[in-house]
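Issue: ligand-bound run for manganese (II) ion - logging full I/O for the record.

Environment: standard queue, default settings, no custom constraints.

Inputs:
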Amino acid sequence: MKKSVLVVEDNEQNLYLMRYLLEENGYECISARDGKKGIELATQIKPAIILLDIQLPEIDGYAVARELRKDVSMTHTVIIAVTSYAMPGDRERALEAGCTGYIEKPINPDTFLDEIEQYLANSLDEGNQL
Ligand code: MN
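Outputs:
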C-alpha cells in the first residue's frame, strides 16, 4: 500500500518539488496551503507522515503541530517540520511543539527522501504503528 504524506506548505515551488519527489518514490501526496486546512486534512486522512512548513498563513506550523498532538490518534504520526536553514531557533521550537524532527529548506532533492525515511524507520523501531 502506498504511504500517504500530507504536505502543509504555502510556497508553490516547495510544494511542487516535495510532491514530485514523493510521488516519484511511490508515496501518495496530499497537500494543504495553510495550517487550518492542514489540521482538517490530517484529521480526516490520518497520513503516515506530515511535512509541515513553519511559516504558514493563519496558523503557523508550531500551532499546527501542537494541535495535531492533542489528537490521540496522531500521537505517533511522523510530523517533520520543514524549517529554513537561516532560522536555527525554529528547529528547537518545532521539536518543543511536538514535531518528530525537521528537514532544512532549501529542500535537497538528493537527501530529502532519505531523511523522511529515516524518521519513519526510527518511529517504527520505537514500536509505533502507523
Ligand atoms: Mn511558508
